[in-house]
Specification:
Blueprint: H1 9-23, H2 43-73, H3 78-82, H4 97-101, H5 121-124, H6 129-162
């Protein structure tokens, strides 16, 4: 396939770079020492691993967003369109740490709840470069935003469960 000069050139480059970033310095760690089939891992250890991974994912998503912003946006005003356009924006989340601490540790389960679905794939495949760059900007903006929330809430949950809110 000849991609030189094609509208897919930037998309393929971004995909390649994001895959390289995700694989950079990653070595799987076994949950159990020596890969034992039957072992017990403490909840503290599981939280420690989850917090490390979520922090790592957030850092990578922030790096990808910053790199994309530096290379492709150049005053195009993508941020004004991306502010509230994440498909996860409709999910009720606390605005700050204090609000997050007010949430019940065991929230009720809601059956038949409808969750937002990401519908951005066609925008990433558009032939128009401006639209495609805007879609990538939005995707990376939302990934950074959501990974930051997950990282923070996971740390808060660890604090509540492991340290009994003594953090």
């Amino acid at each position: 396939m000849n991609i030189k000069g094609s509208p897919w050139k930037g998309s393929l480059l971004l995909l390649l770079v994001s895959n390289l970033l995700l694989c950079q310095n990653v070595a799987p760690l076994p949950v159990c020492p020596g890969g034992a089939a039957r072992c017990q891992v403490t909840l503290r250890d599981l939280f420690d691993r989850a917090v490390i991974l979520s922090h790592y994912i957030h850092n990578l998503s922030s790096e990808m967003f910053s790199e994309f912003d530096k290379r492709y946006t150049h005053g195009r005003g993508f941020i004004t369109r991306a502010i509230n356009s994440c498909h996860t924006s409709s999910l009720p989340t606390p605005e700050d740490k204090e609000q997050a601490q007010q949430i019940n540790v065991h929230p009720e389960t809601k059956e038949n709840e409808i969750y937002p679905v990401w519908t951005g794939l066609p925008s990433l495949q558009m032939a128009d470069e401006e639209s495609r760059l805007s879609a990538y900007y939005n995707l990376l903006h939302c990934l950074r935003r959501d990974s930051h929330k997950i990282d923070n809430y996971l740390k808060l949950l660890k604090c509540r469960i492991i340290h009994n809110n003594n953090c």
